[in-house]
Structure formats: C-alpha cells, structure tokens
Amino acid sequence: MKILVCISHVPDTTTKIQFEADGSALNKQGVSFVINPYCEYGLSRAIGFREEGKTVSITVLTVGGKEVEATLRKALAIGADDAVRIDAHPSDSAFVAKQIADYADGKDFDLIFTGKESIDFNGGMVPGMLAEHLGMAFVSFATHMEMTGDSTADLKREVDGGVEVLSVNLPAVISCQKGISEWRIPNMRGIMAARKKPLATVAPSEMGEVIPTVKMSYPPAKGETKYFEPDNAKELVTALVDKGLI
Amino acid sequence: MSVLLFAENSNGSFKKPVFEAATYAYDLAQAMGTDVAAVSVGQVSEEELASLGTYGVSKVYNVSSDKLNDFVNTAYAAAVTAVANQIGAKAVVMAQTYNGRAISPRVAVKLDAAPISGAISLVDPANGFDAIRMAYSGKGVQEFKANTDKVVVAVKTNGYKVEENPTTAAVENFDFSAKDKDLDTVVKEIVRASEGISLTEAENVVSAGRGMKGPENWGMIEELAGLIGAATASSKPVADMDWRPHHEHVGQTGIQIAPNLYIAIGISGAIQHLAGVSSSKNIVVINKDPEAPFFKIADYGIVGDLFDVVPQIIEAVKASKATA
Ligand SMILES: Cc1cc2nc3c(=O)[nH]c(=O)nc-3n(C[C@H](O)[C@H](O)[C@H](O)COP(=O)(O)OP(=O)(O)OC[C@H]3O[C@@H](n4cnc5c(N)ncnc54)[C@H](O)[C@@H]3O)c2cc1C
Ligand SMILES: Nc1ncnc2c1ncn2[C@@H]1O[C@H](COP(=O)(O)O)[C@@H](O)[C@H]1O
C-alpha cells in the first residue's frame, strides 16, 4: 500500500502568539512548532498498517519553507519512509490543497491521510479539496479504520450526534481525529535513522493565493471577571438569570 | 438568485445550525441585493422544506432519490453544485456540521470558489468577501479576503444569530441523478449517541474536570445540566480515565464548542482545554484555586470548593424556577 501523510507544521498550542507589527503575519521568533496533532494520528495509523504485517510505503509531505524540515524529520523518526517538502509559503487552504494534489496526481497513492484540521486556523478545508482535485473518495473525521481487503476498508467517522460506520474503496483521502490511533513517541533508533532517510524538495506549481490574509490581530480583551463569594453562590444564579442566560 | 443555502437535514428535519446558516445566507443576500434559494438533499417532507421560508428562503430545490438517502459527500457535493450552477450562485452557504465540513471543500473546488470555514461574521460582498475568523486557539483574529468571484461559506455552529425573516418558500423538485462513481462510500450504520442534548449544538454546557475526584460525583453535574437545559462536557483527563465518555471531551484534541454559556467546574483551564471552549460567549468558572488559569477568561467566577458551591447553585436554580 502506498500511503501519503499530509502534515501541517503549526505553533504548539502553549506558545505565546505574537504578530508582526504591521499585522501581516505571525511573528515566528521564539515560537515552537510541532506536527499538527491530528496529522500525527494519520501518521500513526499508517505505521499501524505496517505493524499489522502489511507492506506499506509511507511518504510524509508538507507545503512550507525550509523551517518545516525539522517537523518532517520528526515524522521520519516516528516511522515514515521518506519526506517531501513542497517549497512554498502555505498561504491558504485552497493553495495548499492544489499544491498537494498536483504533487500526488499520477503517483498512485492508495491512501492519503490528513488531520481533520490544522490547529492554527482550524480550517479543515484542505482534505476535502484535495479529494475533489484528485477525484478520490473522502472520509472525514475518521475515528477508526480497518482494511477489509486489498483495496477496501471499513471506517467509523464522527457525525453530529453519533458515529457513522461506513465502507470505502481505495484510493481515498482520510481525515483523522482522536480514536483512529494513538500518538507515538520517536525512540533513539528512529531519530538516528531519520537523519539518513530521504527528504526531497519539490518546486510548487505556479499559482497565486486564493484567500490571502489581510491582517492578523488580537482578540478583544475579556472584560473583568465578576466574582461571587463561595457561601453565596445564589447570587451567581441571580446574575445569570438577570442576563437571560438560564 | 445568487445565494444558495445547503439545508442539511437530520433524519428529515432541519435543526438550529441550519437556521443559523439560513440567517447568514439571508443577511448576505440582503447585502448583495438578491434572494436566498436553498437546496435539500435526501428525504424531507414538503412541509419541512417550506418551513425554511421562516428564515427568509424564498425557493427550495428538493433533490431526492433513493440513491441519496444516506450521506455520501461526493454525490451530495455534486447535487449542491448542480443547483448552484443552474441558479448562478455567487455564494453557497451551509452549516459547519461534520457533514457540512465534508462537502463544502468539494463544492468550492467544483465551483472554483474560495472555501471559507469557521465563519462567525458576514463576508463583505462589496469588498472581496472580506471577513474575519478566529485563529491560533483563540489567541488571534485573522482578517482575510477571497481572490475569487464566488465563495462557499461554512458557518460555525453557534457562530451566527438565528433570526426569522418570514417569506413564502416555493418548493420545486430538482432533477438530479447521482453518478455511480460519485456514490463512493457506503454507510452501513449510524450509531446515535445517548439521548440528551448534542454538545456541538448546545446553548448551555456544564463541564467538569479532575477536580470532581471521581465519576461517582457526576450526579450533581447532570442534575445542574438537566435543570438549565445544558449538555454535559468534560476535560480530557476525565475522558482518558473513563470517568466520562470520550464524546464529551472538549478542547484542542476533543470537540470545539461555542455555546452561549459554559460553566467550568473543577477544570484548571489549561491552554489545550481553552482551545476548545474560549469562543463561548459567557464563561463561569468554579475552582478552589484562585490562580487557576481559567479565571483569566471567566466572565463570572467563584473561588471555592465545588462540593459546597455546586449544590448551592442547584438549590438556587430550583428556587428561581419555582418563582418564575
Ligand atoms: C497535546 C495535548 C492536547 C491536549 N488536549 C486537551 C483537550 O483537548 N482538552 C483538555 O481538557 N485537555 C487537553 N490536554 C490536557 C491539558 O493540558 C490539561 O492537562 C487538562 O485540561 C487538565 O484537566 P483538568 O482541568 O480536568 O485537570 P487539572 O489540571 O488537574 O485541574 C483540576 C482543577 O480542579 C480544581 N479543583 C480540585 N478540587 C477542587 C474542588 N474540590 N473544588 C473546586 N475546584 C477543585 C483544581 O484547583 C484544578 O484547577 C491536552 C494536553 C496535551 C499535551
Ligand atoms: N501546509 C500543509 N502541508 C501539508 N499538509 C497540510 C498543510 N496544511 C494543511 N494540511 C493537511 O490538511 C489537514 C487539514 O488542514 P486545514 O485544512 O489547514 O485545517 C492537515 O491536518 C494536514 O493533513
């Protein structure tokens, strides 16, 4: 099975977010970046197929500048076989989806794993656009996946108010969330091996931004917290009732 | 007509996220000087379809065929696109439900439109569909524009108001037959989560964390939630320890919600937790530690022992209901 895992490179949730003074973009200084946690579920599920005894090749791919290579190396350390960096600024989801599609087109991937969304903008649009560009089936919000034949799989996906059980013929794009696998921590051997694994840089296809950022800013500051005494909790209820909240 | 609403049905009826999207579509149509048409796919009664008129939809295209009873994103996206093309829609609007998020990107590619997700404010049609959305776990706001003449907008659940703009909706069957190759996934079964209010759609949420000490203490959380018509939620460790079911876990790795009222009980307010709840409009925090980070984003706070405070709240809610 030939598997592509799309990985986005995002600021760790715990880092302080600051924008350039002109509001054009994130100020990356001092920000620690990680593999988007949802993409890690996809990578981990792919490695799971290998552990189940299937013959798989796992390519990880990121659209981004040179700085994303550390993230790709980490994915290699976790267990991917090779990495590809499409050398372009990932300006927006339509741009990224088209870049990945142009790369994947004609390469006969059986499975493309993505995260359900990137935790920077929580857009969640890349996987479905990618599926559409490639004319592939798309299973979103997957919480479980099992192969049932050489090119058929059963999955579970989250839907509003429940879980949908479905089957799909490969090739398919699968967007992953919690449940489909457990995260893996790279071991020393993986980290050593990752240094020698291939990491190719690919030129982007020619296209402009589709949804450019006009400005980044900070959310309005939260107002003061109104405190109530712990032995007088009924005043809180009065306040909530007065505001029409309950 | 140039604004098209995709009205997703749940078991034959429309729910609040669709009304939010309908209100959004109506406001956008007003700004563009046009009307709202809707498309429904699946089995929905004529009466239910016509009820969309309440929210300002003046025409409903009904796509129904046996092949489309179950949700298949490829075929549904093709149906929505067919209607959009026929009416020359400049904007397609839908609720950002799980299914909405599966088809909106496909429709965007088919229409050569910009995909806009997480919409919480109206795009400005006179200015490149300029709009804002939250970014970086609530720590930033992104203003963006579309370099296209069409957009597909997914409206965040609880992200836009519901307003009635009553009109008469004419219902028309739309002839569409799904191609076999577009029926590319087969739904075998849908397992409904337990009764109760769906967490993503809930107006009010009562959420509790490790401060609860153990699953045996959740009775008062459920009681409070029941009294104020709230859904229950939890922090991640609580789900990981199996104190509560996983589908209740909110946060960066769980569900992201934006209810009108979020009551956090015995939750410290770690940044990964806040990433899923910071868009809540009113936040109440009950924690015995005055330094708990959650207080930084609280509208209302009580520093105290939850085992003392929550029973008092329950009593006060009961008393206020009794007098109301
Ligand atoms: C990659 C990653 C992703 C994560 N994703 C999520 C996520 O999606 N959602 C999530 O919730 N967490 C997530 N976490 C975990 C997160 O960092 C915190 O560990 C977690 O949110 C803490 O849960 P808690 O507040 O219930 O527990 P604690 O941090 O232990 O807090 C318990 C709180 O209860 C208070 N308390 C104790 N006893 C009482 C009492 N009697 N009365 C009143 N207050 C009391 C304490 O003062 C304390 O503030 C993630 C972590 C990582 C690393
Ligand atoms: N720059 C990128 N490079 C590679 N994959 C990406 C990139 N951005 C997004 N993706 C993939 O698309 C998924 C959803 O991202 P998004 O649509 O940006 O929320 C991510 O989890 C990744 O799998």
General description of the model:
The complex is a heterodimer of chains A (246) and B (324). With 246 residues, chain A is of the alpha/beta class. Chain A has helices at residues 37-51, 69-78, 93-104, 126-134, 188-196, 234-242; strands spanning 2-6, 9-11, 33-35, 57-63, 82-86, 111-115, 137-147, 152-159, 162-169, 172-176, 199-202, 213-217, 226-228. In chain A, the strands form two sheets. Chain A has a nine-stranded mixed beta sheet, with helices on both faces. In chain A, helix 2 (69-78) crosses helix 5 and helix 3 runs parallel beside helix 4 (126-134). The termini of chain A are far apart. The model of chain A has no long low-confidence stretch (mean pLDDT 96). With 324 residues, chain B is α/β, with parallel strands linked by helices. In chain B, strands 5-8-4-1-2-3-9 form a seven-stranded parallel beta sheet, with helices on both faces. In chain B, strands 12-11-13-14-15 form a five-stranded parallel beta sheet. In chain B, helix 3 (73-87) packs across helix 4 and helix 5 (219-227) runs parallel beside helix 8. The radius of gyration of chain B is 21 Å and the shape is elongated. Chains A and B meet through helix 3, helix 4, strand 7, strand 8 and strand 9 of A and helix 3, helix 4, strand 5, strand 6 and strand 7 of B. Strand 13 of chain A pairs parallel with strand 15 of chain B. The complex binds flavin-adenine dinucleotide and adenosine monophosphate. Flavin-adenine dinucleotide binds next to helix 6, helix 7 and helix 8 of chain B.
